Amino acid sequence: MLASIVATFLAAAAIVSAQTSSLVASAPVVTNNPIGANYNANLPVQTKNAVRGSVVAQSNPDGKGVLVNVAIAGLPLEGGPFMYHIHEKPVPTDGNCTGTGAHLDPYKRGEVPACDSTKKETCQVGDLSGKWGNITAQSLSASYVDEYISTNPADPAYFGKLSIVVHSSNKTRLSCGNFTTIQAGDVSTLKPAGPSSGYALPTGASPTNNTLSLSATATGTGGESAQNPTATPPAPNAPSAQPSSGAQKVLAGAGALMGAAAFAMLL
Ligand SMILES: *[C@@H]1O[C@H](CO)[C@@H](O)[C@H](O)[C@H]1NC(C)=O
Ligand SMILES: *[C@@H]1O[C@H](CO)[C@@H](O)[C@H](O)[C@H]1NC(C)=O
Ligand SMILES: *[C@@H]1O[C@H](CO)[C@@H](O)[C@H](O)[C@H]1NC(C)=O
Ligand SMILES: *[C@@H]1O[C@H](CO)[C@@H](O)[C@H](O)[C@H]1NC(C)=O
Ligand SMILES: *[C@@H]1O[C@H](CO)[C@@H](O)[C@H](O)[C@H]1NC(C)=O
């Protein structure tokens, strides 16, 4: 009796999870970013660790996607690979990173399954390291065009009033910083965007021991040490992706919910 109930549950869960994996919620490509919009998030100097840096994000010159320049340094030798995400809330005034809540996930895709970087539209919008790569050394200097985040305050994927959080692999929040508006941009004026590359890593010693260590020792499981912090960030390239239909999104949302329930039953 019990066995047959369990078997029924397992069969139902298998069907639901098969549906879920083929219908993961998708984020649309953002094409109406105000030209010239420019935001900056600084990771503050802290006493608890030496992590510091910035994420500068500005509308891509054609308004399609956002050019992101990441410069993070001072990561610890232990605890990698490190992840960084846009979170759904700003940093509280006391700087406590816990208060930034969860990842920016306007299409409610959830944490599972893990982001597949070959299908960026299916990842949480705020999961930058899932889409563009973990930090596998003590620093990262990277540039890319993310087509799913937005500099348009009316867009659900708008990050301008939110925050960046850097995590160690066990999810500990190492540092966080608010995005602040450098320029809001102008939808009606098609002026060229500002600087597009060459953001330097933070330098200089801090009041605490913030000596910039450029050791490229990989702490990641992958063992790559390819991220050369002194290298010029690669030229931004626009990933190609197909936005999915609204109907597919609705189905995917329901599928994800059922999948989560099935997953919980299995535990
Ligand atoms: C998580 O990793 C950090 C180092 O990044 C370490 O200080 C902390 O103790 C770890 N926490 C747990 C719960 O393992
Ligand atoms: C982050 O921004 C919010 C407003 O959006 C502000 O209340 C908060 O003080 C800021 N946090 C820090 C650490 O400056
Ligand atoms: C940070 O905020 C969380 C709740 O959001 C709280 O549990 C934690 O104690 C706070 N940490 C510090 C150091 O204040
Ligand atoms: C990135 O690191 C996290 C742990 O920090 C790990 O769970 C995840 O699988 C890694 N992603 C990739 C693509 O290696
Ligand atoms: C500061 O950190 C660097 C490496 O990050 C280390 O070589 C140096 O000895 C440290 N200095 C102090 C005073 O702890």
From TrEMBL:
Q: Does the keyword Signal apply?
A: yes
InterPro entries the record matches: Cu-only_SOD, SOD-like_Cu/Zn_dom_sf, SOD_Cu_Zn_dom
E.C. code: 1.15.1.1
- The UniProt regions of compositional bias labelled Polar residues, in chain numbering, are 205-219
Q: Which residues form the Superoxide dismutase copper/zinc binding domain?
A: 51-171
Q: Reply yes or no: does the keyword Cell membrane apply.
A: no
One annotated GO molecular function: metal ion binding
GO CC, any one term = extracellular region
| First-listed, main subcellular location of the protein, grouped into a coarse class | other
Q: Where are the transmembrane segments?
A: none
Q: Where in the cell is it found?
A: Cell envelope; Secreted
What keywords sit in the KW lines? Antioxidant, Secreted, Signal
Q: Reaction catalysed by this chain?
A: 2 superoxide + 2 H(+) = H2O2 + O2
Q: Name the Pfam families on file.
A: Sod_Cu
Q: What family does this chain come from, according to its entry?
A: Belongs to the Cu-Zn superoxide dismutase family.
Q: What is this protein called?
A: superoxide dismutase
Species assigned in the record: Lophiotrema nucula
